[in-house]
Specification:
Layout lengths: L1 E5 L9 E7 L6 E2 L4 E6 L4 E5 L4 E5 L6 E3 L3 E6 L4 H5 L3 H5 L4 E8 L9 E7 L6 E2 L4 E6 L4 E5 L4 E5 L6 E3 L3 E8 L4 H5 L3 H6 L1 H4 L9 H10 L17 H6 L9 H10 L1 H6 L12 H16 L2 E9 L1 H18 L5 H15 L6 E3 L2 E3 L6 E3 L1 E3 L2 E3 L2 E2 L7 H16 L13 E5 L18 E5 L2 E8 L2 E15 L5 H16 L2 H5 L2
Parallel strand pairs: 20-24, 24-25
Antiparallel strand pairs: 1-8, 2-4, 2-7, 3-6, 4-5, 6-8, 9-16, 10-12, 10-15, 11-14, 12-13, 14-16, 17-27, 18-19, 20-23, 21-22, 25-27, 26-27
Protein backbone atom coordinates (compact mmCIF):
# COMPACT_ATOMS: atom_id res chain seq x y z
CA UNK A 1 0.00 0.00 0.00
CA UNK A 2 1.32 3.47 -0.86
CA UNK A 3 0.05 7.00 -0.21
CA UNK A 4 0.58 10.01 -2.45
CA UNK A 5 1.18 13.24 -0.55
CA UNK A 6 0.27 16.43 -2.37
CA UNK A 7 0.79 20.12 -1.67
CA UNK A 8 -1.99 21.21 0.71
CA UNK A 9 -3.93 24.45 0.43
CA UNK A 10 -1.98 26.88 2.60
CA UNK A 11 -3.98 30.08 2.26
CA UNK A 12 -6.03 32.31 0.04
CA UNK A 13 -4.38 33.75 -3.09
CA UNK A 14 -1.46 31.30 -2.80
CA UNK A 15 -1.27 29.18 -5.96
CA UNK A 16 2.20 27.68 -5.63
CA UNK A 17 4.89 26.97 -3.07
CA UNK A 18 8.61 26.22 -3.06
CA UNK A 19 10.08 23.19 -1.32
CA UNK A 20 12.43 24.96 1.08
CA UNK A 21 14.07 21.79 2.43
CA UNK A 22 13.49 18.09 3.00
CA UNK A 23 13.90 16.90 6.59
CA UNK A 24 14.14 13.30 5.30
CA UNK A 25 16.02 11.77 2.39
CA UNK A 26 14.70 9.56 -0.36
CA UNK A 27 14.34 6.01 0.98
CA UNK A 28 14.23 7.04 4.64
CA UNK A 29 11.77 5.53 7.07
CA UNK A 30 9.24 8.07 8.39
CA UNK A 31 6.80 7.92 11.29
CA UNK A 32 3.23 9.11 11.19
CA UNK A 33 2.95 12.89 11.92
CA UNK A 34 6.73 13.30 11.56
CA UNK A 35 7.75 16.51 9.77
CA UNK A 36 9.22 15.54 6.40
CA UNK A 37 9.61 18.84 4.56
CA UNK A 38 9.19 22.58 4.74
CA UNK A 39 7.21 24.56 2.17
CA UNK A 40 7.65 28.26 1.57
CA UNK A 41 5.25 30.71 -0.03
CA UNK A 42 5.66 34.45 -0.59
CA UNK A 43 3.95 35.03 2.78
CA UNK A 44 4.92 32.31 5.21
CA UNK A 45 6.60 28.95 5.78
CA UNK A 46 4.71 25.70 6.41
CA UNK A 47 5.65 22.22 7.59
CA UNK A 48 4.35 19.02 5.99
CA UNK A 49 3.97 15.93 8.18
CA UNK A 50 3.84 12.28 7.12
CA UNK A 51 0.26 10.98 7.01
CA UNK A 52 1.30 7.34 7.47
CA UNK A 53 4.37 5.36 8.54
CA UNK A 54 6.54 3.92 5.80
CA UNK A 55 9.35 4.43 3.28
CA UNK A 56 9.62 7.91 1.72
CA UNK A 57 9.96 8.32 -2.05
CA UNK A 58 10.63 11.92 -3.12
CA UNK A 59 9.03 13.22 -6.32
CA UNK A 60 10.42 16.79 -6.22
CA UNK A 61 13.70 18.19 -4.92
CA UNK A 62 14.60 21.02 -2.56
CA UNK A 63 14.17 24.37 -4.30
CA UNK A 64 11.51 23.10 -6.74
CA UNK A 65 8.30 25.10 -7.14
CA UNK A 66 5.08 23.06 -7.01
CA UNK A 67 1.50 24.15 -7.56
CA UNK A 68 -1.17 23.64 -4.90
CA UNK A 69 -2.31 20.02 -5.24
CA UNK A 70 0.91 18.95 -6.94
CA UNK A 71 2.62 15.67 -5.99
CA UNK A 72 5.31 16.01 -3.35
CA UNK A 73 6.19 12.45 -2.43
CA UNK A 74 4.93 8.90 -2.00
CA UNK A 75 5.04 6.91 1.24
CA UNK A 76 5.11 3.13 0.86
CA UNK A 77 3.53 1.57 3.94
CA UNK A 78 4.33 -1.94 5.18
CA UNK A 79 3.70 -3.78 8.41
CA UNK A 80 7.28 -5.09 8.26
CA UNK A 81 9.00 -1.77 7.68
CA UNK A 82 9.75 -1.06 11.30
CA UNK A 83 11.44 -4.43 11.81
CA UNK A 84 13.44 -3.96 8.61
CA UNK A 85 14.61 -0.44 9.44
CA UNK A 86 15.16 -0.64 13.21
CA UNK A 87 17.44 -3.52 14.29
CA UNK A 88 16.69 -5.54 17.36
CA UNK A 89 18.99 -3.62 19.66
CA UNK A 90 18.14 -5.80 22.61
CA UNK A 91 19.40 -8.95 20.96
CA UNK A 92 22.46 -7.30 19.39
CA UNK A 93 23.73 -4.98 22.11
CA UNK A 94 22.04 -5.80 25.36
CA UNK A 95 22.22 -9.25 26.81
CA UNK A 96 22.20 -10.72 30.27
CA UNK A 97 18.98 -10.02 32.09
CA UNK A 98 17.59 -7.50 29.59
CA UNK A 99 13.83 -7.22 29.69
CA UNK A 100 13.31 -4.42 27.20
CA UNK A 101 15.01 -1.41 25.68
CA UNK A 102 13.45 2.05 25.68
CA UNK A 103 14.59 4.13 22.72
CA UNK A 104 14.48 7.87 23.41
CA UNK A 105 13.91 10.23 20.50
CA UNK A 106 14.42 13.99 20.29
CA UNK A 107 11.07 15.43 21.39
CA UNK A 108 9.14 18.17 19.60
CA UNK A 109 10.17 21.38 21.36
CA UNK A 110 8.28 24.04 19.43
CA UNK A 111 6.95 25.17 16.09
CA UNK A 112 9.47 25.86 13.32
CA UNK A 113 12.24 24.05 15.25
CA UNK A 114 13.57 21.24 13.07
CA UNK A 115 16.76 20.30 14.88
CA UNK A 116 18.49 20.59 18.24
CA UNK A 117 22.05 20.34 19.52
CA UNK A 118 23.05 18.23 22.52
CA UNK A 119 24.51 20.80 24.89
CA UNK A 120 25.82 18.34 27.47
CA UNK A 121 25.04 14.98 29.05
CA UNK A 122 24.35 14.95 32.79
CA UNK A 123 24.97 11.18 32.85
CA UNK A 124 27.56 8.96 31.18
CA UNK A 125 26.98 5.92 29.00
CA UNK A 126 26.50 2.87 31.22
CA UNK A 127 25.24 4.90 34.19
CA UNK A 128 22.12 3.93 36.06
CA UNK A 129 19.32 6.44 35.50
CA UNK A 130 16.00 6.81 37.28
CA UNK A 131 12.63 7.57 35.70
CA UNK A 132 12.17 11.35 35.15
CA UNK A 133 15.80 12.09 36.11
CA UNK A 134 17.44 14.80 33.99
CA UNK A 135 19.98 13.07 31.77
CA UNK A 136 20.86 15.71 29.16
CA UNK A 137 20.41 19.29 28.07
CA UNK A 138 19.39 19.99 24.48
CA UNK A 139 19.59 23.36 22.82
CA UNK A 140 17.71 24.88 19.89
CA UNK A 141 18.26 28.24 18.24
CA UNK A 142 15.62 29.72 20.55
CA UNK A 143 15.77 28.03 23.94
CA UNK A 144 17.30 25.26 26.06
CA UNK A 145 15.41 22.18 27.25
CA UNK A 146 16.12 19.38 29.70
CA UNK A 147 15.77 15.76 28.60
CA UNK A 148 14.51 13.37 31.28
CA UNK A 149 14.77 9.58 31.43
CA UNK A 150 11.68 7.73 30.24
CA UNK A 151 12.47 4.64 32.31
CA UNK A 152 14.74 3.33 35.05
CA UNK A 153 17.73 1.37 33.76
CA UNK A 154 21.19 1.58 32.22
CA UNK A 155 21.82 4.44 29.82
CA UNK A 156 23.45 3.99 26.44
CA UNK A 157 24.32 7.29 24.75
CA UNK A 158 24.03 7.24 20.96
CA UNK A 159 24.73 10.93 20.24
CA UNK A 160 27.69 12.71 21.84
CA UNK A 161 27.91 16.28 23.16
CA UNK A 162 27.72 18.83 20.36
CA UNK A 163 25.83 16.50 18.01
CA UNK A 164 22.98 18.09 16.04
CA UNK A 165 19.90 15.91 15.60
CA UNK A 166 16.60 16.36 13.81
CA UNK A 167 13.36 16.27 15.74
CA UNK A 168 12.50 12.58 16.18
CA UNK A 169 16.11 11.46 15.87
CA UNK A 170 17.45 8.70 18.12
CA UNK A 171 19.38 10.25 20.99
CA UNK A 172 19.88 7.40 23.48
CA UNK A 173 18.38 4.20 24.82
CA UNK A 174 17.73 2.81 28.28
CA UNK A 175 18.08 -0.90 29.01
CA UNK A 176 15.56 -1.96 31.65
CA UNK A 177 16.92 -5.17 33.19
CA UNK A 178 15.85 -7.64 35.83
CA UNK A 179 18.81 -6.52 37.91
CA UNK A 180 17.77 -2.87 37.96
CA UNK A 181 15.17 -1.96 40.56
CA UNK A 182 14.06 1.62 41.23
CA UNK A 183 14.43 1.11 44.99
CA UNK A 184 18.12 0.19 44.76
CA UNK A 185 18.83 3.24 42.63
CA UNK A 186 17.58 5.75 45.15
CA UNK A 187 17.13 4.25 48.64
CA UNK A 188 19.84 1.70 49.53
CA UNK A 189 19.28 -0.54 52.52
CA UNK A 190 21.23 -0.23 55.77
CA UNK A 191 23.11 -3.43 54.97
CA UNK A 192 24.41 -1.76 51.84
CA UNK A 193 25.95 0.97 53.99
CA UNK A 194 28.07 -1.60 55.79
CA UNK A 195 29.21 -3.55 52.76
CA UNK A 196 29.21 -1.17 49.79
CA UNK A 197 29.92 2.42 50.84
CA UNK A 198 30.18 3.65 47.25
CA UNK A 199 26.66 2.50 46.42
CA UNK A 200 25.23 3.90 49.65
CA UNK A 201 25.97 7.43 48.50
CA UNK A 202 23.37 7.13 45.76
CA UNK A 203 23.53 8.47 42.21
CA UNK A 204 23.12 12.09 43.36
CA UNK A 205 26.55 12.28 45.03
CA UNK A 206 28.83 14.41 42.87
CA UNK A 207 26.11 14.76 40.23
CA UNK A 208 25.84 18.20 38.63
CA UNK A 209 22.68 19.25 36.76
CA UNK A 210 23.09 20.90 33.32
CA UNK A 211 23.27 24.47 34.66
CA UNK A 212 25.99 23.57 37.18
CA UNK A 213 27.84 21.41 34.63
CA UNK A 214 28.07 24.32 32.20
CA UNK A 215 29.42 26.68 34.88
CA UNK A 216 32.05 24.12 35.93
CA UNK A 217 33.04 23.53 32.31
CA UNK A 218 33.55 27.26 31.77
CA UNK A 219 35.79 27.37 34.84
CA UNK A 220 37.66 24.23 33.79
CA UNK A 221 36.77 22.44 37.01
CA UNK A 222 35.87 18.75 37.25
CA UNK A 223 32.66 17.84 39.08
CA UNK A 224 34.65 15.30 41.08
CA UNK A 225 36.59 18.15 42.69
CA UNK A 226 33.45 19.90 43.99
CA UNK A 227 31.68 19.05 47.25
CA UNK A 228 27.92 19.07 46.65
CA UNK A 229 25.63 20.65 49.22
CA UNK A 230 22.35 19.65 47.58
CA UNK A 231 20.04 16.76 48.42
CA UNK A 232 22.00 13.49 48.52
CA UNK A 233 25.27 15.28 47.77
CA UNK A 234 24.09 16.77 44.45
CA UNK A 235 26.16 19.70 43.16
CA UNK A 236 23.94 22.79 43.05
CA UNK A 237 24.30 25.80 40.79
CA UNK A 238 25.57 27.81 43.79
CA UNK A 239 28.22 25.13 44.47
CA UNK A 240 29.43 25.49 40.88
CA UNK A 241 29.52 29.29 41.07
CA UNK A 242 31.51 29.19 44.32
CA UNK A 243 33.95 26.52 43.12
CA UNK A 244 37.53 27.63 42.62
CA UNK A 245 40.15 26.02 40.39
CA UNK A 246 42.91 24.53 42.54
CA UNK A 247 46.27 25.41 41.03
CA UNK A 248 49.06 22.92 41.62
CA UNK A 249 52.42 24.52 42.29
CA UNK A 250 55.09 23.19 39.99
CA UNK A 251 58.65 22.55 41.11
CA UNK A 252 61.41 25.10 40.35
CA UNK A 253 62.91 22.67 37.82
CA UNK A 254 59.57 22.37 35.96
CA UNK A 255 59.14 26.16 35.95
CA UNK A 256 62.64 26.60 34.53
CA UNK A 257 61.95 23.99 31.82
CA UNK A 258 58.70 25.76 30.93
CA UNK A 259 60.47 29.11 30.52
CA UNK A 260 63.17 27.58 28.28
CA UNK A 261 60.55 25.94 26.02
CA UNK A 262 58.46 29.12 25.82
CA UNK A 263 60.63 32.11 24.83
CA UNK A 264 57.63 34.46 24.80
CA UNK A 265 56.75 33.57 28.37
CA UNK A 266 60.40 33.80 29.44
CA UNK A 267 60.55 37.36 28.14
CA UNK A 268 57.72 38.86 30.15
CA UNK A 269 56.48 36.01 32.39
CA UNK A 270 53.02 36.67 30.93
CA UNK A 271 50.51 34.05 29.91
CA UNK A 272 49.35 33.95 26.27
CA UNK A 273 46.50 31.55 25.63
CA UNK A 274 43.55 31.22 23.30
CA UNK A 275 40.34 29.29 23.64
CA UNK A 276 38.22 28.15 20.71
CA UNK A 277 34.54 27.63 21.45
CA UNK A 278 31.77 26.57 19.10
CA UNK A 279 28.98 29.09 18.66
CA UNK A 280 25.73 28.00 20.29
CA UNK A 281 22.60 27.67 18.12
CA UNK A 282 21.15 30.72 19.91
CA UNK A 283 24.23 32.82 19.18
CA UNK A 284 24.27 31.74 15.52
CA UNK A 285 20.60 32.62 15.11
CA UNK A 286 21.05 36.02 16.79
CA UNK A 287 24.04 36.76 14.54
CA UNK A 288 22.13 35.76 11.41
CA UNK A 289 19.08 37.83 12.32
CA UNK A 290 21.06 40.95 13.24
CA UNK A 291 22.99 40.90 9.97
CA UNK A 292 19.71 40.37 8.13
CA UNK A 293 18.15 43.39 9.86
CA UNK A 294 21.09 45.62 8.95
CA UNK A 295 20.95 44.51 5.31
CA UNK A 296 17.18 44.46 4.79
CA UNK A 297 15.92 47.52 6.69
CA UNK A 298 16.45 51.25 6.30
CA UNK A 299 17.42 51.67 9.94
CA UNK A 300 17.89 55.10 11.48
CA UNK A 301 18.16 56.27 15.10
CA UNK A 302 16.79 59.44 16.69
CA UNK A 303 17.58 60.67 20.20
CA UNK A 304 16.13 62.71 23.03
CA UNK A 305 16.75 63.26 26.73
CA UNK A 306 14.44 62.75 29.69
CA UNK A 307 14.53 64.48 33.05
CA UNK A 308 14.05 61.54 35.41
CA UNK A 309 13.61 63.62 38.58
CA UNK A 310 9.77 63.45 38.65
CA UNK A 311 9.81 59.63 38.36
CA UNK A 312 12.62 59.29 40.90
CA UNK A 313 10.75 61.48 43.41
CA UNK A 314 7.55 59.49 42.83
CA UNK A 315 9.38 56.19 43.36
CA UNK A 316 11.10 57.49 46.49
CA UNK A 317 7.76 58.58 47.92
CA UNK A 318 5.77 55.42 47.21
CA UNK A 319 8.21 52.53 46.66
CA UNK A 320 7.95 51.21 50.23
CA UNK A 321 4.14 51.27 50.33
CA UNK A 322 4.02 49.86 46.77
CA UNK A 323 6.23 46.92 47.74
CA UNK A 324 4.33 46.35 51.00
CA UNK A 325 1.03 46.14 49.12
CA UNK A 326 2.05 44.24 45.99
CA UNK A 327 5.20 42.40 47.18
CA UNK A 328 7.12 43.57 44.13
CA UNK A 329 9.45 46.52 43.63
CA UNK A 330 8.53 49.65 41.68
CA UNK A 331 11.16 50.01 38.95
CA UNK A 332 11.69 52.25 35.94
CA UNK A 333 10.56 49.57 33.48
CA UNK A 334 6.87 49.88 34.40
CA UNK A 335 6.96 53.65 33.77
CA UNK A 336 8.69 53.23 30.40
CA UNK A 337 6.40 50.37 29.36
CA UNK A 338 3.24 52.33 30.22
CA UNK A 339 4.57 55.44 28.49
CA UNK A 340 5.54 53.48 25.38
CA UNK A 341 2.06 51.92 25.16
CA UNK A 342 0.45 55.37 25.21
CA UNK A 343 2.90 56.73 22.62
CA UNK A 344 2.45 53.65 20.40
CA UNK A 345 -1.31 54.18 20.35
CA UNK A 346 -0.76 57.83 19.42
CA UNK A 347 1.71 56.88 16.66
CA UNK A 348 0.58 53.42 15.40
CA UNK A 349 3.21 53.23 12.64
CA UNK A 350 5.87 52.69 15.32
CA UNK A 351 3.89 49.62 16.45
CA UNK A 352 3.44 48.25 12.91
CA UNK A 353 5.42 45.82 10.75
CA UNK A 354 5.93 45.06 7.06
CA UNK A 355 4.66 41.80 5.56
CA UNK A 356 5.54 41.62 1.87
CA UNK A 357 3.82 44.56 0.19
CA UNK A 358 1.51 45.18 3.14
CA UNK A 359 1.76 47.03 6.46
CA UNK A 360 0.22 45.34 9.51
CA UNK A 361 -0.98 47.74 12.21
CA UNK A 362 -1.58 46.22 15.66
CA UNK A 363 -4.19 47.70 17.99
CA UNK A 364 -2.45 46.03 20.95
CA UNK A 365 1.01 46.46 22.47
CA UNK A 366 3.02 43.28 22.95
CA UNK A 367 6.20 44.78 24.38
CA UNK A 368 9.42 42.74 24.14
CA UNK A 369 11.91 43.24 26.97
CA UNK A 370 15.57 42.57 26.14
CA UNK A 371 17.20 40.39 28.82
CA UNK A 372 20.85 39.37 28.99
CA UNK A 373 20.73 35.62 29.69
CA UNK A 374 23.71 33.29 30.30
CA UNK A 375 23.55 31.98 26.72
CA UNK A 376 22.92 35.32 25.03
CA UNK A 377 20.34 38.03 24.50
CA UNK A 378 16.66 37.00 24.60
CA UNK A 379 13.53 39.13 24.27
CA UNK A 380 10.54 37.72 26.17
CA UNK A 381 7.21 39.44 25.51
CA UNK A 382 4.78 41.23 27.85
CA UNK A 383 1.39 40.55 26.22
CA UNK A 384 -1.22 43.32 26.00
CA UNK A 385 0.95 45.64 28.06
CA UNK A 386 -1.46 48.52 27.41
CA UNK A 387 -4.06 46.82 29.63
CA UNK A 388 -1.73 46.08 32.56
CA UNK A 389 -1.24 48.10 35.74
CA UNK A 390 2.16 49.13 37.12
CA UNK A 391 2.06 46.20 39.52
CA UNK A 392 1.18 43.69 36.78
CA UNK A 393 3.96 44.97 34.52
CA UNK A 394 6.55 44.75 37.31
CA UNK A 395 5.48 41.19 38.12
CA UNK A 396 5.68 40.17 34.48
CA UNK A 397 9.12 41.74 34.06
CA UNK A 398 10.44 39.87 37.11
CA UNK A 399 8.85 36.58 35.99
CA UNK A 400 10.19 36.73 32.43
CA UNK A 401 13.66 37.96 33.45
CA UNK A 402 13.98 35.16 36.01
CA UNK A 403 12.95 32.49 33.50
CA UNK A 404 15.34 33.97 30.93
CA UNK A 405 18.32 33.78 33.29
CA UNK A 406 17.40 30.19 34.20
CA UNK A 407 17.02 29.25 30.49
CA UNK A 408 13.40 28.22 31.06
CA UNK A 409 11.59 30.52 28.62
CA UNK A 410 9.14 28.80 26.31
CA UNK A 411 8.88 29.52 22.59
CA UNK A 412 5.50 31.36 22.87
CA UNK A 413 7.00 33.64 25.55
CA UNK A 414 9.67 34.84 23.09
CA UNK A 415 7.67 35.34 19.90
CA UNK A 416 5.12 37.82 18.59
CA UNK A 417 6.22 41.16 20.06
CA UNK A 418 5.25 44.42 18.35
CA UNK A 419 7.81 46.76 19.97
CA UNK A 420 11.01 46.27 22.00
CA UNK A 421 12.58 48.06 24.97
CA UNK A 422 16.24 47.47 25.82
CA UNK A 423 18.03 48.92 28.84
CA UNK A 424 21.76 49.27 28.30
CA UNK A 425 21.88 51.68 31.23
CA UNK A 426 22.11 48.84 33.73
CA UNK A 427 25.58 48.11 32.28
CA UNK A 428 26.58 51.80 32.30
CA UNK A 429 25.81 52.71 28.68
CA UNK A 430 25.50 56.46 28.11
CA UNK A 431 24.29 56.33 24.51
CA UNK A 432 23.72 53.65 21.87
CA UNK A 433 21.94 52.89 18.62
CA UNK A 434 19.97 49.68 19.36
CA UNK A 435 19.26 47.36 16.46
CA UNK A 436 15.69 46.54 15.46
CA UNK A 437 14.21 43.23 16.59
CA UNK A 438 12.75 41.96 13.29
CA UNK A 439 10.02 41.78 12.11
CA UNK A 440 9.24 44.73 14.40
CA UNK A 441 9.88 48.22 13.07
CA UNK A 442 11.24 50.04 16.13
CA UNK A 443 13.15 49.58 19.38
CA UNK A 444 13.65 51.97 22.31
CA UNK A 445 17.03 52.14 24.02
CA UNK A 446 17.26 53.24 27.66
CA UNK A 447 20.60 54.39 29.11
CA UNK A 448 22.20 55.29 32.43
CA UNK A 449 20.97 58.21 34.52
CA UNK A 450 23.60 60.91 35.08
CA UNK A 451 23.44 64.19 36.98
CA UNK A 452 23.80 66.85 34.25
CA UNK A 453 23.46 70.65 34.16
CA UNK A 454 20.31 71.81 32.36
CA UNK A 455 18.55 75.15 31.94
CA UNK A 456 15.12 75.60 33.55
CA UNK A 457 13.36 78.96 33.57
CA UNK A 458 16.60 80.70 32.62
CA UNK A 459 18.63 79.11 35.41
CA UNK A 460 21.24 76.35 35.31
CA UNK A 461 20.21 73.46 37.56
CA UNK A 462 21.43 69.90 38.01
CA UNK A 463 18.98 67.16 37.08
CA UNK A 464 19.16 63.33 36.66
CA UNK A 465 19.10 62.97 32.87
CA UNK A 466 18.67 59.84 30.74
CA UNK A 467 19.35 59.79 27.02
CA UNK A 468 16.83 57.69 25.07
CA UNK A 469 17.25 56.38 21.53
CA UNK A 470 14.66 55.13 19.05
CA UNK A 471 15.96 52.99 16.18
CA UNK A 472 13.33 52.59 13.49
CA UNK A 473 12.76 51.24 9.99
CA UNK A 474 12.49 54.27 7.70
CA UNK A 475 10.56 52.20 5.15
CA UNK A 476 7.48 52.33 7.37
CA UNK A 477 8.20 55.08 9.94
CA UNK A 478 8.88 58.63 8.79
CA UNK A 479 11.02 61.14 10.65
CA UNK A 480 7.96 63.03 11.86
CA UNK A 481 6.52 59.92 13.47
CA UNK A 482 9.77 58.77 15.10
CA UNK A 483 10.60 62.19 16.55
CA UNK A 484 7.00 62.77 17.69
CA UNK A 485 6.99 59.35 19.39
CA UNK A 486 10.05 60.28 21.45
CA UNK A 487 8.65 63.73 22.27
CA UNK A 488 5.40 62.12 23.49
CA UNK A 489 7.43 59.63 25.53
CA UNK A 490 9.43 62.48 27.08
CA UNK A 491 6.21 64.32 28.04
CA UNK A 492 4.76 61.26 29.76
CA UNK A 493 7.93 60.40 31.68
CA UNK A 494 8.65 63.95 32.82
CA UNK A 495 5.07 64.29 34.07
CA UNK A 496 3.97 60.82 35.24
CA UNK A 497 0.52 62.11 36.23
CA UNK A 498 -0.25 62.11 32.46
CA UNK A 499 -0.07 58.31 32.57
CA UNK A 500 -2.85 58.22 35.17
CA UNK A 501 -5.01 60.83 33.46
CA UNK A 502 -4.38 59.61 29.90
CA UNK A 503 -3.46 63.07 28.57
Amino acid sequence: MSLEMKVPSVGESISEVTVSQWMKNDGDHVEIDEVICELESDKATFEVSAEIEGILKLKVGAGDTVEIGGLLCVIEASSEIKEAIVPDVKSEKLTGGAVKTIQMLVPTVGESINEVTISNWAKASGDLVVLDEVIAEIESDKATFELTAEATGKLEILAADGTTLEIGGLICQIAVTDEVQPSTAVIPSESDHATTPAVSKGYAVGHAPPAATKILAEKGISAAAVQGTGVGGRITKEDAMNAQLQKVESSPKEQEKSIINDPVQSADQGERSEQRQKMSPLRKTVAKRLVSVKNETAMLTTFNEVNMQPIMELRKKYKESFKAKYEVGLGFMSFFTKACCVALQDWPAVNAKIDGDEIIYSNFCDVSIAVSAPKGLVVPVIRNAETLSFEQIEREVVRLATKARENKLSIPEMTGGTFTITNGGIFGSMLSTPIINAPQSAILGMHNIVQRPVVEDGEIVVRPIMYVALSYDHRIIDGRESVSFLVRLKELLEDPSRLLLGV
